Amino acid sequence: MAASSSSMFNGERAVVVLFVCRVLFSLPLSLLCHGINLAFLSLFALLLDIRADISAVSLPQFNTRQGASSGILLGAVTLPTLMISKLIQLTRAYSLHQIELQELEHMTMQYWATYASCFGVLMFICIVMWRAPKATHHRGSYTVWDLISLFCIISYAMTCCVSLSTISLTGLNTALKLIWELCHGLVAVKLLQQLVNTFPSCASIGEVLLVTAGLVLYFGDMLACTIAKVSSHLISTEIISVQYGIRRSEISIIIQGLLIGLLLFPMFFKFVLHVWEWSLSMGRSEARTSNELGRSLLFFTSLGFILTLIVPSWMQFVQDFHVHPVLWVLKFVFSEPFKRLSLCIYWLALVYASVSRFYNISKNSKIERILLRKYYHLLAVLMFVPALIFQPKFLDLAFGAALAIFLALEIMRVWKLWPLGQLIHQFMNAFTDHRDSDLLIVSHFSLLLGCAFPIWMSNGFNDRPLAPFAGILSLGIGDTMASMVGYKYGVLRWSKTGKKTVEGTAAGITSVLAACSVLLPLLASTGYIVTEHWFSLILAVTVSGLLEAYTTQLDNAFIPLIFYSLLCL
Fold first, then answer.
1. Residues 198-208 pLDDT 10s
2. InterPro entries, per this entry (predicted)?
3. Residue 303 contacts by C-beta under 8 Å, 6 or more apart in sequence?
4. What's the predicted TM-score (pTM) here?
5. Which of 97, 222, 237, 498 lies 20 to 30 Å from 330 when distance is taken between CA atoms?
6. What digits encode the pLDDT tens for the residues 327-360?
7. C-alpha distance from residue 38 to each of 21, 44, 333, 509 (Å)
8. Buried (b) or exposed (e) across 541-561, using 16+ Cβ within 10 A?
9. d(Cα 324, Cα 307) in Å, to the nearest integer?
């Protein structure tokens, strides 16, 4: 019984519950219905998380990463809680007449889309558990679980209908919005199954759930934005105006088009490759001798076609660029040539010096790989903090370009394309850990996205100047100091089976608070209006630090989002 209780109420779940309670405590009355739904989602996810870990129920559909817990609770609540934190922030702005109602309603629809994706996946996991072989169950032992799960599902449907009806003028519009949210849930389930089957043993359920919800939201936003441009009569005008009629910046459109184009590119390339191989099989056998070179030429030709023709065409369709998006980017960079080109040279010099140095160390030294990886976290601080303070818009664009390059290189590595595929694999393999695999290396993606996502989310209204720095502070400083101090001086461990130490966690929390005490006066001197409350800041830093100590999930992906959500309150 004691072992069962400790398993049910482990540190990771306790921290996540504390995180959700902190956000719910900050809700204004106007978001009460959203908060009730978030509570139901958290309860549903908690039950499934506990049931997956302590029961004999197997999940054969999920071939997850070894050594990690299911992470269902953390993966299910992170993005919806982030969205409701943004809603709280935008509600403050609307009450002060600093934003239009349209922007608030747009974020409301984004929240429900995210919520539907996560809840749809939870329902799928629940059905899988219900259909598990009866031999693994004790008869009647899951009656309470099933009743509570059914209660959460019914409560979700009722509160969702009530909330969406408050931002709809007619019952038809409410029905259309419910269908739109239902589509998000169904697509999320199919995408999660596809990701698990395509990349087995590469992630936990919670990590795949986080990625799935994010991708569905991003693709759904692109699809609805495109439909809204094609014709306002294809779907309800109110849905378009409420959710996708807000003004978007050229940089956000460029980033969205570039990333979605690269994410869809493997499917396009696979089709083209099959057609090419079929044509070779119909020809002479001598034509197959240059197969490897031909695949590479086909890859780069297809990639160039997508990035120079298809993606820019979509960008120009949904946004009035007046010039080709590539020319717009060049014009943007050279609008302040000295600052932005100097920043590019500074970045390239740092990357070249660091990569060459650390790669040689990784091959010839006995230094722990975890410490080598943390040097890249420190590198992120040196690269991104100056740019975020003095050139935030250019940093937005640079993050998108860097992520696009990472995606292209990972595609080359996975497909083993000549001449770079094997070289990229050898280089990346020098910095991998147990959370990476030969099939998919995610550490560099999670670090870059962990730093970039809070900055992207802070575009527009932002009354919390530290919020854009959430990823840089939590990963570049907090996570790095926690690992280094814990590795060298740690004695007291948080758990018998884990490696995280109390000393490391204390060092991480202290270092982030120290960095904030330096950063806040610097931001005030550059014109930012500092509105941070130290109690809220200490609580946010402490919660994210404890999550780093307890979680077995990919912390680079979750900690910045948790920290950012708490900073927005």
1. 888 788 888 99
2. Polypren_kinase (IPR032974)
3. 265, 269, 408
4. 0.89
5. 222
6. 999 999 999 888 899 999 999 998 888 877 776 6
7. 10, 10, 42, 28
8. bbbbbbbbbbbbbbbbbbbbb
9. 12
